């Protein structure tokens, strides 16, 4: 019984991670260090 439950938990985790990958996730807004410093100086 424990092995069966563990199998379903692992399978569910894998499917959830695959599904979230295909959803596109959140778009990461990457900036350079120079842009970060400029933004800090401007108070943003």
- Proportion of residues in helical segments: over 70%
Please give the domain count: 1
Structural class category: mainly alpha
β content, as a range? under 5%
Care to give the gist of this entry?
This protein has two helices and no strands. The chain is an all-alpha fold and 44 residues long. It has one domain.
Give your account of this protein's structure:
- This protein has one domain (4-42).
- The chain is built from two helices and no strands.
- The protein is 70% helix and 0% strand.
- By secondary structure, the protein is mostly helical.
What labels would you give this structure?
44 residues; mainly alpha; 2 helices; 70% helix; 0% strand
Indicate the topology.
Layout: H1 2-22, H2 33-42
């Amino acid at each position: 019984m424990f092995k069966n439950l563990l199998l379903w938990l692992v399978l569910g985790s894998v499917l959830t991670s695959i599904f979230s990958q295909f959803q596109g996730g959140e778009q990461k807004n990457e900036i350079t260090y120079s842009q970060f410093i400029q933004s800090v100086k401007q108070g943003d």
